[in-house]
Structure formats: structure tokens, C-alpha cells
Amino acid sequence: MINIQQVTKKYGDFTALEGIDVAIDSGEFVAILGPSGCGKTTLLKLLAGFMKPTAGQIEMDGSVVGSRHQLIPPEKRNIGMVFQSFALWPHMTVAEHVEFSLRYHTNSKRLAKKNRIARINDVLTMVGLEQLAQRYPSELSGGQKQRVSLARAIAALPNVLLMDEPLSALDVELRMEMRKEIQSIHRRTNASVVFVTHDQGEALAMADKIIVMNKGKVEQIASPEIIYTKPETEFVAQFVGKCDLVKGSWKGNHFIPEEYLWVRWQDTGVSESLKKKGVYPVRPEQWLLSRDKSEGLRGEVLFAQYQGKEIHYTVQADNGIWTVHTSVYESRFQPGDTVTLTLKTDNEHEQLQ
Ligand code: ADP
Ligand code: MG
Description:
25% of the residues lie in helices and 34% in strands. By secondary structure, the chain is of the alpha+beta class.
């Protein structure tokens, strides 16, 4: 439905995006995830039609909407946009924001007044603002303002909803609640959603597909579960969830660490490209801690942080410092305790030295 082909964007000499290839299906919820400055907003602006790519092209519904020579403007693209900063007009009420958007969009411009009022009511009900239709932005909380900007974005029933870090200005609790609301709006509208975030938790929780970006390039495109369990690159492994990387060499399915590391391991969760690089990613929740002095990696607990459902340990071992997350229902350890680390495995495993 949306096809981004070999898209490059330069600002003067600076290359903000390079050779981006992404396909977004109709109705799909896609998260663009990456650190600040990696080019997320630039990609979203190209999708919206605020500017042309320097090279490559963007297709929507089979026709080219953006290339070096061509630019279909935002109001002709059948999109809705939500910004981090809400971008509301101080002199317009909640209902007027939605109405403005309906008048502006090509596919709702000619709605009869009666239908327009009905649509405004529907949309405000969908985002839970029906009681606040006559309020001005200065009379709304942060969460309510973001709901207005959501209502405005979905009012014209766009095929594509573009959201640039829509939750980052909200406090933690509200962010969690709005995650569900956006998912529910996505389900009800059937629009494709392109959701930009630098928050890995948000991307993992909400998206059908995650595009991980770094320095203007795509690192990996896959489902949340594949991104987490089979990262393709060291960047993805370390950016998405906490992950330590062990260097060594692979012999078939056997991993031989460079440094002494006595662990039980399995290779499920290791991508072919990381294998080629001689890297084994270890997630904090993969470690098992015990007092047992037999086989395993010996270490000393430096810190133990209680987190409610987990305990986060920092363990100093001979070969480095490891992060270990255990359930509160497992054995507890104190700073100074000597512990043995082994890797949890769920199916067949080998024991190596
Ligand atoms: P993100 O949204 O991932 O934080 P942006 O797409 O905003 O990243 O920016 C990507 C890079 O392009 C950054 O290094 C930024 O400084 C640069 N950049 C963004 N907009 C402009 C501009 N209008 N002119 C020059 N450089 C820009
Ligand atoms: Mg940005």
C-alpha cells in the first residue's frame, strides 16, 4: 500500500536518510524505532508530503506521490497526522479542531453540514472527548490535548495515520493508557499506522512490524518478537531491550567464547548475521543465578535492585560485568554474595568450556 523505494534525503551536504526500502501494508501498525537524530521525523515528513526525497520514490496505492521531480501535497494524500507537541490552535474549541480538519481534507471537504456534525460527534466519542467539545486547549490536560489531536487526525477517515512520538510529552501512566487507546482506534478505523518512537517498549507493545533505524539507515524490519529474539545487528540487539554481547567464534551451532565462559547455551534467538560476526547476544533474563559452586561462571553481586516483579543484579565475573534479571520468586542474593551464572535453556543444549 505504501512503498518506500531507495529513498535518500539530504539536507545540504548532510545525509539524513540513505537507501531506505520499506513496504507498509494496508491496515498495518508499523513502528519506526531509533535514537534521536536517526532520521525518523524526516522519514515521516516524506510520507506526509512536506518535502521531496533527494533520491528514490514513495508510492501510495500504486502511484508515485514523492520523488525528486514530484510532490503530491499532504492534503491530497489521504493521511492524518499526530505530533508530539499536539499542535493545537489556542482560539479553536475541541469540536472546531475536528471540524477544521474535515473541511480541509479532500475526502471530507464536501460533507453536508448534518453529516459533518454527526462525524464530529462520532470522532469525539471515539476518543472520549464528547463532554469537552466546547472547551479550548488551555482548558485541557496534556492527555486530553493529545486526544484532540488524535480526533482531528482520524476525522476525515484517512487511510494512513502518521504519528511522530505522540506519547512522549505525556506522563508514564497516561502513556500506558494512550497506548491502548491508539491500538483500539487503529482496530476501529482500519487505517495503516506509522508510529514514530524512540521508546523500545512502546514499539514492542504496539506494532505489528518494527523498523529499527540508526544513523539514517534501516537496521532491521521484523515483528516485535523477531526483533527481540533474533536481532540481526549488534545495534538492534543493544538498542531493543538490555543485551550483553559475547564475542567468540561459531562452529556450526556451537559457540566458543573468546574468553573463558562456562555456560549452557542454545542458539535459538541468534540470527545468521550475528553468527557471522562471532557474536552471541545474552539477555538479562536468560541468566540463572545460584549458590551452587559446580559448573558455571563465577561472580560477585555488586548491586541488587528490587523492581517489584523482578530483581536486577549487576554481577562482576572474571570476564566482565553482567546484568541479570530474575523473578522475585527465585532465590535472592545480596551485594557481596558469590554466585554462579548459567544460561537458561529450554530445549536441547550443549555444555562447553
Ligand atoms: P529524529 O526524528 O530521528 O530525531 P530527524 O529526522 O529529525 O531525526 O533528523 C535527522 C537528522 O537530520 C538530524 O541529525 C538532524 O539534525 C538533521 N536535520 C533534520 N532536519 C533538518 C533540516 N531542516 N536541516 C538540516 N538538518 C536537519
Ligand atoms: Mg523526531
